[in-house]
Design goal:
Structural class of chain A: mainly alpha
Distance between the termini of chain B: 63 Å
Number of strands of chain B: 0
Helix content of chain B: 55-70%
Number of strands of chain A: 2
Largest sheet of chain B: none
Oligomer: heterodimer
Radius of gyration of chain A: 20 Å
Number of domains of chain B: 1
Strand content of chain B: under 5%
Mean pLDDT of chain B: 92
Low-confidence stretches of chain B: none
Strand content of chain A: under 5%
Largest sheet of chain A: 2 strands, antiparallel
Mean pLDDT of chain A: 86
Number of helices of chain A: 12
Radius of gyration of chain B: 20 Å
Chain lengths: 324, 141
């Protein structure tokens, strides 16, 4: 007899959810265009969507931890594509989801020395200023353009996740003059190898330039930006993988703060969407950490890539007006 | 067997100070978010937008929502803080302000240590975050 693996069940459940969510959300949209918005509720009671949102974000929180991605990158395309909420509110909630995760993880990462303040601060100031620009662009551009760009970005992330290699301890023959001037270097204790790892970085200027783009995208799409931070810190600048992942997570607490303020002050935050999402992702992440040792990371990562592929296609087709 | 090194050996004093403010701010913020949401969703504090009417608004672009719900941009939400839905903004705004507090905590340490470049970066970051929080930046579809 064949045993059904939990990951297969999850993927099957996700696909069923996509079909149901699309049908229900599309039903709501169709009504909304014909009658006053009072009827635009897909026939469900008001509390049903926040409840479904909590359940889905709880599951996303588990998958995000197991798949090694931030919650925001899963949250925005999936909730934006399959729930009846406008993308403005989804992006606002997405930023708060990413911010909450980063705030919760930040103290531990800093105390352990895995996240490095001297590496984060110069890059964060650039990315957070850019995130403000991105947030304003996202709120100013027509929704279908943002939706289309979101779809393309998510599909780009899928390619990046599929192809990008990671380097545990990149070789940095010599620190560049900028990182030397800023004294960006550090030392941490690697539990896996039982050794102290001394690290430094190079190509700092190129990294700073890329963080302008990363900040704009983070603010515009409300995605968080770990998917972009880590390759730049690790592959381009040569920070060890653990330092890159930790510093990236911590940096989100700074970068997403600036964009979150713009969304909050522009009214693009609805408590009934944002708070269940934050709580769902946080609780899911706690469960995910508990499951981390029992699951095969490579399988979960493939599921995350498939989920992002479907959500990215949905966002793209929605933006192009092909699949509303 | 060599003793495991403690975290403090690998984190600078600025980093530990930053982490301490972040830790406390995060915890206080989350408690505020959970409490205010409970008051809202349980109907203890009446909201500005009745919950059963929310589906009318959440599918609108933000500019139409602002008009329809008679909500204004910037810090005008403070005027609605007595309403259950906008009371939630207290916790959300607090969480969004924690980072500013962290920078203000380490700034004197950086200045005392003569770290001019990072003092400048910290001041710049505070200015960026205060600008974002000020509500003077206006965007809309």
């Amino acid at each position: 007899m064949h045993r059904i693996k939990p990951v297969s069940l999850f993927l099957g459940g996700f696909l069923v959810f996509l079909a149901l969510g699309t049908a229900l959300a599309a039903g709501g949209d169709a009504v909304a265009t014909q009658v006053p918005p009072a009827a635009a509720s897909s026939g469900l009671p008001w509390w049903a969507w926040p409840l479904i949102l909590f359940v889905v974000t709880f599951a996303l929180g588990i998958v995000a931890v197991l798949g090694g991605v931030g919650g925001g990158v899963l949250f925005v395309p999936i909730v934006g594509g399959f729930f009846p909420f406008h993308l403005d509110f989804v992006r606002g909630a997405g930023l708060l989801v990413a911010l909450a995760g980063a705030l919760a993880a930040g103290p531990g990462l800093l105390r352990s020395g895995m996240a490095n303040l001297r590496l984060a601060l110069p890059l964060a100031v650039i990315a957070s200023a850019s995130a403000i620009v991105g947030a304003m662009m996202g709120l100013a551009l027509p929704t279908h353009i943002v939706q289309t760009a979101l779809g393309l970005t998510i599909l780009g992330i899928v390619v990046l996740m599929w192809l990008a290699k990671k380097s545990e301890f990149p070789e940095v023959p010599q620190a560049d003059s900028l990182s030397s001037a800023l004294r960006i270097h550090g030392i941490y204790f690697d539990v896996a190898s039982g050794k102290e790892i001394d690290w430094r970085v190079h190509r700092t200027l190129q990294g700073m330039i890329l963080f302008i783009v990363i900040g704009i995208m983070a603010g515009m799409f409300g995605l968080g930006a770990g998917w972009a931070n880590v390759p730049v810190l690790n592959l381009l600048m040569g920070a060890p993988l653990k330092v890159s992942v930790s510093t990236s997570k911590f940096m989100l607490s700074i970068v997403d703060t600036s964009a979150a303020w713009v969304y909050l002050n522009q009214g693009a935050v609805l408590a009934m969407i944002a708070v269940p999402s934050i709580l769902g992702i946080m609780l899911g992440s706690l469960v995910g950490v508990g499951l981390l040792k029992k699951t095969k990371a490579s399988v979960v990562r493939r599921i995350v890539i498939i989920m992002l592929l479907l959500a990215g296609l949905r966002a793209l087709l929605k933006g192009l007006g092909i699949w509303n | 067997m060599a003793a495991s090194p403690t975290n403090k050996e690998y984190a600078t004093s600025e980093q530990l100070a930053y982490a301490q403010v972040l830790d406390w701010g995060m915890k206080i913020g989350f408690v505020m978010v959970v409490c205010t949401f409970a008051l809202y969703v349980l109907g203890v504090v009446p909201p500005h937008i009745p919950v059963e009417q929310l589906p009318q608004y959440w599918s609108m672009p933000v500019n139409k929502y602002l008009q329809a719900a008679n909500v204004h941009t910037g810090w005008s939400w403070l005027g609605l803080i007595g309403k259950g839905d906008f009371m939630n903004f207290l916790g959300i705004a607090f969480l969004s302000a924690v980072t500013i507090g962290c920078y203000l905590r380490i700034l004197p340490m950086l200045i005392r240590g003569g770290d001019k470049i990072f003092s400048f970066i910290a001041i710049l970051e505070v200015l960026v975050l205060v600008l974002a929080a000020s509500g003077v930046l206006v965007a809309g579809h």
